[in-house]
Each structure stands twice: as C-alpha cells, then as structure tokens.
What does this fold into?
Amino acid sequence: MSDLPPLPQRLVIDAVRAALAEDLGRAGDVTTTATVSADAVARAVIVARQPGILAGLPIAERAFRETDARIAFRAESSDGDALAPGTVAARVEGPARAILAAERVALNFLCHLSGIATATAALVERVGHTSARIVDTRKTTPGLRVFEKYAVRCGGGCNHRFGLDDAILIKDNHIAVAGGVMPALERAKAAAGHLVKIEIEVASLDQLTEAMVLEPDAVLLDNMSPADMREAVALVAGRALTEASGNVTLASVAEIAETGVDLISSGWITHSAPALDLALDIAIG
It folds into this structure.
C-alpha cells in the first residue's frame, strides 16, 4: 500500500526495545541458550496461517535486528497486502539463538496489528458501495496507539484524532458539565485556535439542531437509529462532517453507511479485533 504513512522509527525502536526487555528479563532466553549452540545458524519464514491483511512488518523486522544486527530480514509482502493461508510474509536468516529470542516479540506485534488491519478491511469492504469512510477511535492499547492507528490505515481505514491535543471533541460529559450544547460550543469556539477543528457529539435531532446554529466542523451522531441518521444528514446538509458512532458491527455498518454519513467510527477494530494467525517456521535441511 504505497500511500501508508511511515512509522516513526524512534517510536518503533523504543517499543521494540521495551518489549524485548520485558521478554528477555534478567537472564535472556534460557531455553534457547540451553538447547541451541552459539554458532548455530537458522533460516525461517514468517507465514500466514489464515487469510487477512498484513500490518506491522517493519516492527517485526526491528525486533530481529535489535536482537542481533547480523540477522538478515527479507520482506516478501508489504503492509496492506492481502495474505492467503500459506503466504510467506518475510524470510529471516542468521544466528539461531537471536532469531528464536526475537520470535515472540516480532509475532506479537505482527499478529496484533494484522488483526486490526483485517478487521478494518472487513468494515471497509461492507461500505464500499457508499462514500462513507471507516475511522478509528482513542480506544487503543496504552502505548501502542500510533501502531494500532497505522494498522487501521493498512486495512483501508482512516484515522480520527490521535490524542486529546489533536482537536476539540465535545462529548456528552463535557456538555453536561458545561451546562448544555450551546455553552459548550461557545466556549470551545472562543478557546480554539484557527487551525483547531471542533466536533460535538449529539444524541438527538434536537441537540443537533441546537448545535448547528454555531456551525461546528463536525457532528458525532451518537447511537442514533438509521432513520434518525438519515434525517440528521439532511438537516446538516453538507455544512459539517457527519460521523456515526455506536453499535457499529459487520452486520450493521452497511445500513449505517447508506444513511449518507461521511464517517463511521469504530472502537472494535482496535480494542477487540482478534489477532491474525501468523507463525515463524524454521526451515529444516
């Protein structure tokens, strides 16, 4: 996928080193040290056991290279590629002890992120007949957000804000504390810089009508029925981006998209997507 943003290498290195330190602990891989000679060389492949979308290959590569710079890593697929069972994603060759020590860390990242990409792609496919885009949320694993949002892009989705400092998103609790939709929006507009977008969550058509008086950049239609979403899209009439949120599943996403909303946000694709089954197989002989 040529339009994927590059992963920030500083963050990749930090995450991989932390994961290796967690796994190798104080004494290193005692099993491999006990059973594999120091001069043994191994060849291995990373292979898909089930169909899905690949994501996280650069992180897996870094896990092997951080363990031993002598390891040769050759990608046979690219992030964003569709994998069939048996597809070789990469080939690894070098000191056997280092390959075995890095294996689990590399696969943990690769399987988790590929699972997110696969789940995202499934939603994207269901809305392909519409103009709606699938976007992620902040419901991510602490410390892994940048990688999980990258995986969403690998699956054909788009990124929502990366953090609380990206944009203003006024949610139900902000509205409750501020005293209503209008006071919350008025304060946000007074505080926002000229490059800061403002989105507000609304749970009813009445709240939406009230919000549109102050012309937010986007409105989040929270847990609305498809009928109400259609009416909301007509009410907004292109004056703001419309985002559907809540109860987004493979079964419901097409109907949601057909209401005409611009965006459909899903927390499931990052917090609950099952890992994609990829494995490292040592070549024998």
